[in-house]
What we know:
The chain is of the alpha+beta class. The protein has four helices and eleven strands.
Amino acid sequence: MTLMSPQTNSGSRSDLVTYDLRDTKVQVVKSGTRIRGVSTVVTNVAMVNLPTEKQLGSSIGVVMSRFIYTAEAHVRGGRNGHGHAVGSGLDIDLKVPVELGGTGGGTNPEELFAIGFAACIETSLSSIAERRSIAVGVVEIDSLVKLFLNEEGEGFRLSVNLNVTMSEMDDHTTAQSLIRSAYELCPYANATRGKIDLEISYRGESVALDD
């Protein structure tokens, strides 16, 4: 399947280029365009009216997302081991907590996940607020990650509770709108949606999330 020459459409956004793809059209965001809270789009990313498999046969590779960052880590010894991130100063001892029969004295995957999830939601929220020109002040999140035994069969599951505060936001309706948008943007939320029990609150008041 061949992309034809870009077309210019009267009245179209200047940051979009439309390509003819035989019987369907694809709009591609130009390099450097700001989009959904991401600082810049490093390379062309397709934003399209998606063609169906029937239209494109087996060639659905036209619409692509490009990775923008890779985190690399090395762990030895599991939950009672040691971990470090390649290329940064993160170097930690991992210890099973006392509540799970361990000695404690180090961090664990649940604590790291609690920090990562909260940081991701907070960054997404702050970015959306800036884009909408909404003053939120200092954003802080208290996070709880709980580990459960599965009720059916073997294995474990997680639940996450995030309580968000914004120092300059007293309008709960606006606050909840920002939180819902952050939930849609955050890669941690996107990766775990429908797979964990998640509750996000604003100043202790639960926010209805559209799953």
